[in-house]
Amino acid sequence: MIGNLADATLAVSGNAEWLGAGAYRDAFLINGVVYKVCLENDVPGTQANLDEWEFYPIACDIVPEGCAVPETMLYAVGPCPVIAMAYVEGTPMGECYCTPDEPHSNCLPLHIETALSTAGFFDIGYGNVVYDGTTYWVVDFQS
Ligand SMILES: [Zn+2]
Fold first, then answer.
1. pLDDT tens digits in sequence order for the chain, 143 residues long
2. Inter-CA distances, 118 with 57, 110, 111, 115, 138, Å
């Protein structure tokens, strides 16, 4: 099991190392684990984390070869569901939107991009995949 309730509670308080923000969530790194806290109008929300938790077993099932899904857990901090996820050190990557004259930077290889979207990972924008040199980790699969 990844993470714990005390650190999830710390993430909700916001007094932790801020790792970054997605469209709906802040992410904190606490004791080597990523905690994601939903924000809706600047207050703790629920939906993106419930969506990600619901999709987790499916994601583990459908993830294509060469890719993986980090161990994930859900904690309830009062009314606020918090996702805990194993931290993957590596290069943030995403789907390629380059024009022909642009150099690729942090774009997923086409065969990986195709394998992921064919499998059912439809939101593989920049940062939703992290490459550790061996494996493409899908670190955001809430949609
Ligand atoms: Zn590209």
1. 999 999 999 999 999 999 988 778 999 999 999 999 998 766 677 889 999 999 999 999 999 999 999 999 999 999 999 999 999 999 999 999 899 899 888 999 999 999 999 999 988 999 999 999 999 999 999 87
2. 17, 12, 10, 5, 14
Ion ligand 1 nearby residues (CB, 5 A) = 96, 98, 104, 107
Start-to-end Cα distance in the chain? 23
- Residue 75 CA to ligand 1 center (angstroms) comes to 36
Q: pTM of the prediction?
A: 0.92
DSSP structure class, residue 16: S
- Cα gap 54→135, rounded to integer Å: 23
Calculate how far, in angstroms, residue 103's C-alpha sits from the geometric centre of ligand 1: 7
Q: Which helix (H) or strand (E) holds 139?
A: none
Say how far residue 68 (Cα) sits from the centre of its chain.
12
CA of 46 to the centre of ligand 1 (A): 33
